[in-house]
Amino acid sequence: MRNPHAGEPFDTTDEEIAEALLDMSIPTLLLSLVHMSGDPEIIRGKLRPAGLFLNEVQGYMTEEDKAEARALALEVIRNYRDRGCPEPEPIGPELLHEMMTWLVCEDVPDEYVPMLMEEMELDGRDARRIDPVGDPAARAAFPVVVIGCGQSGLLAGIRLAEAGIPFTIVEKNAGVGGTWWENSYPGARVDVGNHFYCYSFEPSDHWTEFFAQQPELQRYFESVMDKYGIGPHVRWETEVVGATWDDDSATWSVRTRAADGTEDVLTARAVISAVGQLNRPNVPVIEGADTFEGPSFHSARWDHDVDLAGKRVAMIGAGASGFQIAPTIAPEVGHLTVFQRTAQWMFPNPNYHATVGPGVRWALRHLPFYGRWYRFLIFWPGCDKGLEAARVDPDYPDQQRAVSETNEFTRQMFTDWIVGQVGDHPELIAKVVPDYPATGKRTLQDNGAWLSALLRDNVDLVRTGIDHIEPAAVVTVDGERYEADVLVYATGFRATEVLAPMTVTGRDGIDLRELWGERPAAYLGITVPGFPNFFCMYGPGTNLAHGGSLIFHSECQMRYITQCIDALITGNHQTIEPRQDRYDDWHERSQEAMRGLVWSQPSIAHSFFKNSAGEIHVLSPWRIVDYWTWTKEPDLTDFVLD
Ligand code: NAP
User: 369 and 257 in one domain?
Assistant: First the structure.
């Protein structure tokens, strides 16, 4: 069978190929040419990228070099087509490493190569899939309940099906996608490049934008669900209210409540929580909020029946969601007042709203491994460099401003980007340049849309605190009254309340959220002592603020979980749970690492990462390569197996 990433054979004309080449990432194209021709000299001459920056896919090559590369490419592609598009010969590890280093203009350390090779699947093998082993009857007798059908729950279903393990997914919404189902607010789009932000085992030649909008993302998850036949396993519009462990039968009783109020209990040998961290809206308590007479709603519960045309809209909160909402609704509304407590750092990405041209789509579909190298090109700049940049240098003098020299450099770059857009509006500059270290909260992707919205005549940015809400206005602490017909809460989620509001009761009647309090933890973000056969995806300590993608993390977690379940079944065990000392040690080390990172900086007063004591338990402080290594295969000595 042809390697699925080798591209579909084609008979495209020379003229069409020449046209398509105009769209493509030239460095990525040159690597595809090496596959097509088998000639590594293509990348050993003067044609090469000159530098690396996140989302800079042309490697700063000159127009002249790009034109030369296209002329060469036309020749190689024509020859490949005329030979009938044969599947390229595999390339050895040394040359592949050379190609990686060439593409990203820096050494790719050896320790990263196995992870990247797996992620790119150049051999066409989905190495994170676990096939059934052992007695099929034993697997069939091991029902699993998955809670949630967002990206991680859907992945869990796919992997369990492949592994021959029966499962039911319980989903509170009426459709798949989780956050991409719920967040339908105007302007919602992903901010990790989609050719990486998708399952590693699914082709990505269909995206219409490099950072797709919510409807396309939701459709993606729906099409993957259909392709893998997961839909029939899902109980839609059904919420898990609780799960209780029974030691005698070594099973979980999972209590569900359907939208019509019907309650049910599912019995499972294992439970996988795939509930996400960002789906319980945080609506601040503001005096008088209930007296507001117009429509009011949270960004994740957008009321599409409300026509905003010509209306005075007040938007409270402007983090990642508000940042996308404001520019999208500003041209339509009569007036928009944005109430922002903390200014946000933003990262220049001029192509944030760019569409994927037909040439790129053709390349992704037909040119051998173009899509895989493109995936690597997006992944690499966000792979652990962000973590290095987030490290606090305790000797750096002005920690309020920057936590290290690198962080100061980032601050300068981000400030230049902001100030360069605002020009001669000192009043606005004072409001939009943050006063805490760069990247200290979640950094946003920006193509200029946010600041150009704020510069509009019908938009105001208010940084003064809110005092109260009246029937037709928001009033700030300085007594200023801002009239409004519609109130939007873009105030984020209760991210630190992991697994809320479910009640998960483990051995000896221990309630998981009571056990955690404000300090949720799980070994590798996945398992908790006293909660046998209970696994978290996107659990505590696994949210990513430094790069990577949650889908990548979910794939790591699900491979690990499937192998834990395999260990139970094939070893004829009843239960698996982490050793208390490993769990304690993990949490302690994670906290120590987290304290040395910019997100913990005490000057960052408000952050959804922090608990009320200012500690961070939801984020990962670890390198992506380490997490991949630790979760590649469970070390069974970390566990108690009974
Ligand atoms: P968020 O980043 O937590 O932002 C919430 C906003 O509401 C902030 O401006 C916050 O101010 C403000 N706020 C919260 N409580 C407040 C209060 N009591 N009084 C006044 N202001 C208050 O939430 P979000 O924008 O919904 O984003 C959450 C996460 O979702 C993101 O970090 C990201 O992980 C994800 N997301 C991703 C995308 C994307 O991929 N493009 C888009 C949207 C969301 P402070 O900053 O002062 O706390």
Answer: no
Q: Do 134 and 572 touch, CB atoms closer than 8 A?
A: no
**Are 312 and 434 contained in the same domain?**
yes
Asked if 367 and 31 touch (Cβ cutoff 8 Å), the reply is no
The answer to whether residues 270 and 322 belong to one domain is no
- Rounded Cα–Cα distance for residues 410 and 408 (Å): 5
CB of 636 closer than 8 Å to CB of 567:
yes
pLDDT tens figures, 496-547? 999 999 999 999 999 999 999 999 999 999 999 999 999 999 999 999 999 9
- Dihedral of CA atoms 606, 410, 427, 454 in degrees, nearest 10, equals -80
Contacts of 585 (CB under 8 A, 6+ apart): none
Q: The domain spanning residue 537 has which CATH number?
A: 3.50.50.60
Q: Which helix (H) or strand (E) holds 304?
A: none
pTM score > 0.70 for this model? yes
5 lines ligand 1 (CB under 6 A): no
Q: Is the peptide bond before 501 cis (omega within 30 degrees of 0)?
A: yes
Measured CA to CA, the distance from residue 177 to residue 173 in angstroms comes to: 9
Q: What is the pLDDT of residues 344-362, one digit of tens each?
A: 999 999 899 999 999 999 9
CB 190 less than 6 A from any atom of ligand 1: yes
Task: Give alpha helix (H) positions in 228-334.
Answer: 320-329
279 lines ligand 1 (CB under 6 A): no
109 CB-contact burial (10 Å; exposed 0-12 / middle 13-18 / buried 19+): exposed
Counting the structural domains of the chain, the total is 3
Probe residue for ligand 1, chosen from 341, 464, 619 as the CB with the greatest number of ligand atoms within 8 Å: 341
Owning domain of residue 150: 142-279+495-641
- Strands 486-489, 296-298: pairing is parallel
Do 533 and 617 fall into the same domain? yes
Question: What b-and-e string marks burial along 481-509, b requiring 16 or more CB atoms within 10 Å of the CB?
Answer: ebebbbbbbbbbbbbbbbbeebbbbbeee
Q: How far apart are CA 369 and CA 50, in angstroms?
A: 22
- Say yes or no: 511 and 615 in one domain: yes
